[in-house]
Specification:
Belongs to the short-chain dehydrogenases/reductases (SDR) family. This is NAD(P)-binding protein. Pfam families: adh_short_C2. One of its GO terms (molecular function) is oxidoreductase activity. Keywords: NADP, Oxidoreductase. The chain is of the alpha/beta class. The protein has a single domain (9-244), classed as Rossmann fold (3-Layer(aba) Sandwich). The protein contains 7 helices and 7 strands. The chain has helices spanning 18-29, 42-53, 69-83, 109-136, 159-178, 203-212, 221-233; strands at 9-12, 33-38, 59-63, 88-91, 141-146, 183-190, 241-244. Strands 3-2-1-4-5-6-7 form a 7-stranded parallel β-sheet, sandwiched between helices. Strand 1 (9-12), helix 1 (18-29) and strand 2 (33-38) form a beta-alpha-beta unit. Helix 1 crosses helix 7 (221-233). The longest helix has 28 residues, at 109-136.
């Protein structure tokens, strides 16, 4: 039976801009209350919260660095404090440093560590903190990670990003396998998204990626956000990765 989203409490990390903000609007349109995590974009987060409240649901903002364990725990705690419960987490916060993929000296040790902390350890910390709340819910809890097709290929904004997104996908499967029948864990793998982040690619690279995709386009943000809603509603899915990439990586989808 589909999981109804009305009156659910949804925490979205990295939720103030880009894909995170679009996901927030889509869940709010389903009647969910939204906790918007942000790192630096306080103005954007507050503006989005006002917009979401105008849709007839509750919204709050939480400043936190999802590369820090204590801040991830704070996100969970604050969401429960405001809404009284936590039903769904969208682990959307991510980090990269655009660099020459093949240059092994392009990223410092600190860059690699930060990429690992945000893209992998942050997601682990979120679910670990949310476990009691999820297990106490009559219908359990749902955790969806924003991954990337970079995690299933040897390409992306940086080698560290590709490697940590691959590790994130294995973490997703391990959590789904081990955390019991009340907790669903899945991932969405977007292709090229023309957010502030995606627009950092050179114009010629953006054009080449569009041309390489089967559908000859970038990944539509609303289409991508719809995948998160679909997964949240689907009570028969866990441990799965869903690519929404306009066919950019269709040949690798079986991997």
């Amino acid at each position: 039976m589909p999981y109804k989203l009305k009156d659910r409490s949804v925490l979205i990390t990295g939720g103030s801009r880009g894909l995170g903000a679009v996901i927030a609007r889509h869940f709010a349109s389903q009647g969910s209350n939204i906790a918007i995590n942000y790192l630096h974009s306080a103005g954007a987060a507050e503006k989005l919260a006002v917009e979401i409240r105008g849709m007839g649901v509750q919204a709050c903002v939480i400043q936190a660095d999802c590369g820090k364990i204590a801040d991830c725990e704070k996100c969970v705690e604050e969401t429960i404090k405001v809404f009284g419960c936590l039903d769904i987490i969208i682990g959307n916060a991510g980090w990269t440093k655009f660099s020459d993929f093949g240059d092994l000296n392009a990223l410092s040790e600190e860059d690699w560590d930060k990429c690992w902390a945000v893209n992998v350890k942050g997601n682990l910390a979120l679910l670990r903190k949310a476990l009691p709340a999820f297990n106490s819910n009559p219908e359990g809890g749902c955790f969806i990670m924003t991954s990337s097709i970079a995690g299933t290929s040897t390409a992306g904004s940086s080698m560290a990003y590709s490697v940590t997104k691959c590790a994130q996908l294995h973490l997703m499967k391990c959590l789904a396998q081990t955390q019991g029948q009340k907790i669903r864990v899945n991932a969405v793998l977007p292709g090229l998204l023309l957010t502030e982040w995606g627009k950092k690619y050179p114009g010629e690279q953006i054009a080449a990626l569009k041309e390489r995709s089967v559908l000859k386009m970038e990944t539509d943000l609303d289409d991508c956000a719809d995948a998160f809603v679909m997964i949240a509603k689907n009570t028969s899915m866990t441990g799965q990765k869903i690519a929404v990439d306009a066919g950019l990586m269709v040949s690798a989808m079986s991997n």
